[in-house]
Amino acid sequence: MLGINRKLEELEKRGQVIKVGLVGAGQMGRGMISQIENMAGMRVVITADIQIDNVTNAYVKSGVETGGIVETTDAQEAAQAVQSGKVVATTDAQLVTSLPEVDVIVDATGVPNIGAKIAWDAILNKKHIVMLNVEADVTVGPLLKKMADASGVVYTGTAGDEPGAIMELYDFADALGFEVVALGKGKNNPLNQSANPDSAAEEAARKGASPKMLASFQDGTKTMVEMTAVANATGFLPDQPGMHGFVSDVKGLPEIFKLKEDGGQVTNKKIVEYINGVAPGVFAIIASEKEEVNHEMQYLSMGDGPNYVLYRPYHLTSLETPISIARAYFYNEATIAPWKGLQAETVTVAKVDLSEGDFLDGIGGFTVYGTILSAGDAAQQKALPLGLVDRNVQLKRSIKKGEIITYDDVVQTVDSTIWRLRRMQDDTFKADTSNVAAVQA
């Protein structure tokens, strides 16, 4: 299998490129456009955003001349622009997913409902879909993957995001026959479950980031979502609800992930976890029962065992997304996908005391945060998946701070794509389970 760089070079020598369609020209999307403009064999030929200036500015900053950018919502005009070597800026996301000239779609919106619709439309149009939207993935990813498989296209998370970077370590270790004990990531900031856009505003301004996005990191939601994606890809589960959030440096990780009876701090193996002190890295804890393998690991200065740590000290977010685009296009491979189905769930927890009749405001907002449970625990409690929460979800009763919000606690005042897909997912996999049980009987 040729390296992706050489495959891209060969493609460009034949006068071709992978034609990428992007939805969302925020920070992630802008970075990806500029990165791809540096690459051989790939181009973002059309980008949609509700603010057209976001798209044109992203293209100009990437080095595209203004005369090479066509603003349109017309399919024929967009197709002609791409065919003539120009790029298209649009406000119509469906134009991106339906345009025949596009090979691979990337969702960089960060909004669960919008991401679910983009993925659905991409798959219906038989296009590979790369999700920078982990929140949508952990909510309806198992269904979207099943649909993509049936349509002969790839549904994938992205390289460069922490779940994708963790998956690369897992695949490496698992392929070599190591026992994978734990998978995890560093957290960039202390857990503050009360964080909201107001409390995060000053730091967000310094960093040039969205206060809402920063709040979703600080309150732990993003970490819970990311490790839910890893759980659904590998079958690993949190050792306890919400995970532990240990404090450690990289050298201390092997000892932490010993079982308690062996002097460690965890109850189970095959777990997902986050660590304060190793950000922005990701890690896999691995082990082997083979004497010669342990001898070699010790010779290679990997530690004394029985646990060893594989650590990657960086992840380049959307700047690595082109790797996932190319893997889907050339090899029909996903970087990370919910291969194990719904194993874990990021559920909705009240950030403050809430009253009957209040509307919830979603990820990184003022009303709720997310925590990870096993899918079985979440189902038993009828816990509301966080990806279903938006401003159209209203409380039917008062909820205390720290309480898990359930399906029974809310009414959905406006139906949405992600709610419909989640209902479909629940029905589909319930039917799959029933069929398996019937066959076994």
UniProtKB/TrEMBL annotation:
CDD domains xrefs: SAF_DH_OX_like (cd11616)
Pfam families: DRL_cat (PF21135), NAD_binding_3 (PF03447)
Gene3D superfamilies to which the protein is assigned, alphabetical: NAD(P)-binding Rossmann-like Domain (3.40.50.720)
Transmembrane segments: none
GO molecular function terms listed in the Swiss-Prot or TrEMBL record: NADP binding; oxidoreductase activity
Residue ranges constituting the SAF domain according to the UniProt record: 345-411
PANTHER family per the UniProt record, alphabetical: SAF DOMAIN PROTEIN, STRU PROTEIN
Record's protein name: Putative homoserine dehydrogenase-like protein
